[in-house]
Amino acid sequence: MLAAETSVEYYLILGLVILALCSLNLIVLTLVRRFIPDRRLAVAKFADAECPRVLVQLPLFNEGDLIERLLGAVMALDWPRDRLEIQVLDDSLDGSLAISQRAVAALKQQGVHIELLHRVQRTAFKAGALAAGLERSKAPFVAIFDADFVPPPDFLRRTVGALVANPDLAYVQTRWGHLNRDESLLTRVQARLLDSHFGVEQEARWRLGLPLPFNGTCGLWRRAAIDSAGGWDGDTLTEDLDLSLRATLAGWRSGFMGDLVVPGALPTSPRAWRVQQFRWTKGFAQCFIKLIPLVWRSRHLAAWQKLMISFQIGQSLAFVVGVACLIMGLPFMAGAVVGGSGLSLVAFVTSFLGFVAPIAFLAQAGRGEGLHLTFIEILSALVLTSGLLLSNARGGLEALLGHRTEFVRTPKARDRKTGYAPIWRNGALELGAGLALLGFALVEQPVAVLYLAMLIGGLVGIGAMQVIDGLDLARPASLRN
């Protein structure tokens, strides 16, 4: 028994050290963003007659009325019409396809070079649609926009100019904005998290000269880079990260334009957000398994770059490690097993870094909202992301086990069909786990409630929000709030 307890303690210490290193990585990025000077991309300027041909790809799936708004923004792009190709890649299964057909037909009558591609079989999902579209075009530059984004008119002038002026760049990623930031506390939390990703993490990697992950939309690719990297591949749920890393391994660099903002819509329901985060977490873990051996064998990257890339795409597995540490730590919390001083020290350091790192990271992305609103957004972000622990850990575990699931789009609004799903799929698991953890702590070690407050609050909060949202959607429309 003593040997088993010692082994558990060693594994627990190892897990806590891994979590501490992930927090240190976040602190490093925050400090880089704060103290290393900004970098600016050179941007070429050219007259209309000098503009190269550009393909704009719009991958869609059951997007409804968002199609018309997106096409309106694309038609407003400042680019010569005879140098612009537009592909509506619509694999919709609902009435959205009819909307795309009408919109494309109307634009064709106006002389716009636009085509609609609809696949009956969604092979490789979004990656497959993008690859199918590329087969029908020879344009040297490819812009990609998801349905919920509205590109500004100067998007192509600036991004194409950046790739022309920097021939070693595979792609340029721009920053996401938020059309519905102030709709609810949930959307404000998402906006804060995404602002931290683009304004701190992406910006820091750009300043360090590290490879940047393509975010799947609001970017411009060089066609030659896509081809040399092997093209789009649908064997992970994050085809964007997969292709961008393979382009890096092929010797290409990537660029970031943080001052070019493309506004988009945030998920408005807790379940939609959870589904989105699950897909991203699982996709990152899949890319880690697929590509990390190639990263460490690469001759194009320095050792420190390989280490930073490893943390970048491996951080999603921290949720799996976090759940493992929680389970292994329960006997120690209950007093059934007494840990040594080494475990206590590692637990303290990991907990301290686990609070300081995300707070500094999220605070760095502030927009001058004021102390009160900043405090609410950061605290809410910490709590609600803690509530995703079980869902994201499942995503990471499925990736490790090789379990494949289909690409599930993020609903852009509250999906009525969600209301008819079994309640246990709509938050009951998180709610039950949070209440069980609270009960365990109160019975076995009441002081542990303070230590676990954020996790318990997150699980109960995310679970309750999903259950309430699902029950509300299950009611007749005339009875909803």
Automatic annotation (TrEMBL):
Organism: Thermochromatium tepidum ATCC 43061
Main location: Golgi
Record keywords, A-Z: Cell wall biogenesis/degradation, Glycosyltransferase, Golgi apparatus, Membrane, Transferase, Transmembrane, Transmembrane helix
Transmembrane regions: 12-32, 316-337, 343-363, 370-390, 423-442, 449-468
The UniProt record lists the keyword Transferase: yes
Gene3D superfamilies: Spore Coat Polysaccharide Biosynthesis Protein SpsA, Chain A
Name listed for the protein in its UniProt record: Glycosyltransferase
One GO BP: cell wall organization
Subcellular location: Golgi apparatus membrane
Location of the Glycosyltransferase 2-like domain: 142-334
UniProt key word Transcription: no
Lineage: Bacteria, Pseudomonadati, Pseudomonadota, Gammaproteobacteria, Chromatiales
GO molecular function term, any single one: glycosyltransferase activity
Source taxon at top rank: Bacteria
Membrane topology listed for this record: Multi-pass membrane protein
